[in-house]
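Contributing new records

If you add data, match the layout below exactly. Sequence lines come first and carry their own label; structure lines follow with theirs. Keep one chain per record. Anything else will be rejected by the validation script.
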Amino acid sequence: MFPPRFGCLRPAALASRSLCSRPGRAPDMKEVRNRLREIVGASTNWSDHQQALAERTSLSSMLAKSQSDLPPKSMKDSFLEVHLPLGSEPQLKEKYLTFHNTVRFGRILEDLDSLAVLISYSHTYNTALKRSPLSIVTALVDKIDMRHHVIYPDCDVKFTGHVTWVGRTSIEAKMHMTQFRDGAYAPVLDATFVMVARDPENKKAAFVNPLKPEGAEEETLFQEGEANKSRRVDLSTASLLKVAPTAEERKIVHSLFLNTLDNKTVSFRSRVLPPNAVWMQDAKLKGLEICHPQQRNIFNRIFGGFLMRKAYELGWANACAFGGCRPSLVAVDDILFQKPVEIGSLLLLSSQVCYSEGKYIQVRVHSEVFDPLTRTHNTTNVFHFTFASDRDVPSVIPETYGESMLYLDGKRHFNQTVP
């Protein structure tokens, strides 16, 4: 649909050398990350990297004073196509391979995050500047819908994407992943990320170029972006952390409570687990990550893709234990990046099965940074994953009011994902 923005990311011609590979060299994720380092002026060396970021403070004078000072861009300006040659370069496969000879979806999340950042920089690209004064980071993973639940470990993958909506300081990027099989590329997933632009020190918001849709198709995409923004505002306003559950949701919680009462004692304090059910407190799995410099991004914080990978793997393991089989991912939605994670942090990950229905398992992963000196905990991210089992799974039952709110929140996310 669109031409590529950067010459180093030029799409390669497609041919049918085999069922699962393409001839010729194509740009890959390594080039994406190298290009990001060039744009920011980052280094692969730890000590040089710190110095390079300190020097970025001088770029503040290059920031636009208002959005009207920046030239409008079109969607084709940010279009990128990148390849992951799992079939044509078998040596790459080990990084993406699981023990069961499937593709690690956590690695795909890392690649999507890097691509979304580069797409956003492509939109704000200024040929007159050697380095960008903007610090563009992931604010939200709005949605990832799986179009195909199997990613083959020996077939080439193609990512495409571009900016579809722009606010004053935020950017929506849509990406598509396809895989080359049986002589053609077939869809695997669609992803929508929301990025935010900040100053060179990553402290204050910064303006980005406005987006000018061209044609009916681009106008439709832009209006979808506007609708996505309104939907996110509505969901935030209706959050169970801010307002009481709806009348229908209150009935659901009361019904769960009545179904767990002990008929022999008829006591509010005596609860009995229904058949084929699990108490919510018994459907948890926790993990700890020590955040080393190796996991840093180009702004000297922990890479958002790394956080997503770790959260996904913990959530998948919890769904696996809960359902008693290897689950498949259905969707990722509403991943909120509340605070950056600093290098050296103790990152605590807590996975909770908060809702289940039929073969589906809704998992929420909460991540927080623990400061051992002050003994304080600060939430950094919240992740929501929908998994599907190959069999019906137990019902998850809340006991406390807090668990009931998690249950209702999980049900809301499930209803948005599975019609």
